[in-house]
Design a protein that fits this description.
The chain is an alpha/beta fold. It is built from eleven helices and twelve strands. The longest helix is centred in the middle third of the chain and has 61 residues. The chain starts with a strand and ends with a strand. Bound molecules: adenosine-5'-diphosphate.
């Protein structure tokens, strides 16, 4: 048989306590009562209830205070305020303070039973949500551990051996053998990058980069990002045009991560642009907010995809046909920008192009 639900009723009127106990008797409930707030809170500690009814108007410690203390002890305990019609306003106030529902006096047994069922359902849902969240965290941690230990470690070993083999045997290999080994090297590099992106998404460490924030010039960040992106741009004959209002514009941040975000977004602009076109990187503002705009005249993003592009592993139709697309770049970039106190917005028109706008607080020196 399922465990009995534990209910506490706190009210200074004995008649309310007696009638409520009677109404719930015989059901699968354990009902205990208290005639003031102090006693009630003591019971909450002892009983660990699922649901607590609290009268708002009691002598001594007030109903609102009782509610606050219960919410502090365990926010999953459902609380229902019992109130006279004259104090509906304070019931609304109490609900703002965390009470789940309210029960105006006088009430019928059916109303009381219904509110009890609703309160218990609320408690069940809250507990279920917490359990699921915990389960998700455990899964994520395990997954991160599996990816980093079981996948990354052997891959690094393969990579190192391959590099050594290529170095040692370089004089003895035919051209086609060398080409094949080079292709293996390149695929392993891709896999390594993918694993690193997974770990970035899974791990909570993005928040930890705050500890290593230093003063960074935006110009330097963009130059570093362009170093990574330019080989691809050259292959597609795409010119990246950079305009920076003030070369001294600076932010407080983590150089490696912020560059990573820029590489993802400028890299996308190149990836989703037509050959022989231009990508514009423009930096505006310097005093309060710095705006970095990355604009392409590529294939654009359909309206129904726009809302999803910052979701983990989401790839738009265009992303699904482009090589090296994993749907992680924008998720990671957004998190990085947010840790820097900034935002990313996007505007796009299919067939015309896309503009990403990053806004970050400026460092005023
Ligand atoms: P991916 O590795 O798929 O590029 P992202 O998270 O970087 O992953 O991007 C998610 C999706 O957003 C892509 O699959 C693509 O459909 C779309 N996208 C991102 N940037 C652009 C852009 N500049 N132009 C067109 N589509 C883009």
């Amino acid at each position: 048989m399922a465990a009995k639900h534990k209910i506490i009723i706190i009210d200074d009127e004995d008649v309310v306590l007696d009638s409520c106990t009677q109404i719930l008797e015989g059901n699968n409930y354990t009902v205990v009562t208290a005639s003031n707030g102090t006693q009630g809170l003591k019971l909450v500690e002892e009983v660990d209830p699922d649901l607590v009814f609290v009268d708002l108007k009691m002598p001594g410690i007030s109903g609102t205070e009782v509610l606050e203390k219960i919410a502090h002890t365990d926010p999953t305990i459902a609380t229902v305020v019992i109130t006279g019609y004259a104090t509906i306003d304070s019931a609304v106030e109490a609900m703002k303070k965390g009470a789940y529902d309210f029960l105006p006096k006088p009430f019928t047994p059916d109303e009381f039973r219904m509110i009890t069922r609703r309160g218990l359902e609320r408690r069940r849902l809250l507990q279920e949500t917490i359990a699921l969240r915990k389960e998700k965290e455990v899964l994520r941690d395990n997954y991160a551990a599996i990816v980093s230990h079981e996948l990354k470690a052997p891959l690094v070993a393969i990579q190192q051996n391959l590099y050594a083999l290529l170095g040692e045997q370089s004089d003895n290999l035919t051209k086609s053998q060398k080409d094949r080994l080079e292709r293996m090297k390149s695929r392993i590099d891709d896999l390594n990058k993918l694993i690193l992106s997974w770990l970035r998404v899974l791990s909570v460490d993005i928040n930890n980069i705050k500890g290593s924030f230093t003063n960074l010039r935006v110009q330097t960040l963009i130059s570093k990002a362009l170093e990574s992106v330019e080989p691809h741009a050259i292959r597609k004959d795409i010119e990246i045009v950079t305009t920076i209002d003030d070369p001294n514009s600076s932010i407080l941040g983590d150089e490696v991560s912020f560059t990573e975000a820029l590489v993802n977004i400028i890299g996308n602009a190149v990836k989703y642009s037509y050959a022989s076109s231009k990508v514009f990187v423009t930096v505006k503002g310097k005093d309060v907010v710095i705006e970095i705009e990355i604009s392409d005249s590529g294939i654009g993003i359909p309206k129904d995809e726009l809302a999803n592009i910052f979701t983990d592993f989401y790839r738009g139709k265009s992303g699904q046909v482009v090589e090296g697309s994993h749907g992680l770049g924008l998720t990671i970039s957004r998190r990085i920008v947010e840790v820097h106190g900034g935002t990313i917005a996007v505007e796009s028109e299919p067939g015309k192009g896309t503009t990403f706008i990053i806004k970050v607080p400026a460092l005023t020196i």
